[in-house]
Amino acid sequence: MLKDYYEILGVHQTASLDEIKDAYKKLAKAFHPDKHQGDAFFSEKFKSLQEAYAVFTDPVKKQEYDAQWAEFQKSSKKRKGTKQNRTARPENKTERDTTPSSYSAADLPSLVDIYLEKKDKTLQVRKQYDALLASPKKKVVSWVKVAIAVAIIVLNFLLLNPYFGLLK
């Protein structure tokens, strides 16, 4: 199956070389494997970005890809047409079919950055919470000892003081 390099880079088929370069730079920065060490998803995504960029920067490869993509689109439309005839679906499109999705592939780097920022903040808060749980145990124990000592002194004062008259 032919990969959709336009979708991978998040550009339209009529995009200029500058638009393709800008999209590649933005996505390569977001999906670079060095930024996300140990995650296979990001390394695979980065490889597909490089592959798409290599095809689109070479005019000969781009023409060949566009010709293959046009053939692929025609064959997929034929397959969809035969399925529609079997199911007898109406051809009128609703408003939902014509509206674009709320996020496109071009928005993906910003969404990834938002996710990673929230992940970093969560990790920072978790480290602070773990430090709070780990370190104040000695302080809590000493404060408990002080509170018990004060309570014993107050009870002794109340019980032994003749003015309160608890022990007569």
TrEMBL record:
Residues in J domain copies: 4-69
Highest taxon above the source species: Bacteria
SUPFAM superfamilies cross-referenced by the UniProt entry: Chaperone J-domain
Residues spanning the membrane: 143-164
Sequence ranges of Basic and acidic residues compositional bias: 88-98
Secretion signal, residue range per the UniProt entry: none
The gene coding this protein: dnaJ_3
Source organism of the structure: Capnocytophaga haemolytica
Keywords, in A-Z order: Chaperone, Membrane, Stress response, Transmembrane, Transmembrane helix
Region feature Disordered, mapped onto this chain: 74-104
Pfam families reported in the protein's UniProt record: DnaJ
Protein known as: Heat shock protein J
PANTHER family reported for this sequence: DNAJ HOMOLOG SUBFAMILY A MEMBER 3, MITOCHONDRIAL
SMART domains: DnaJ
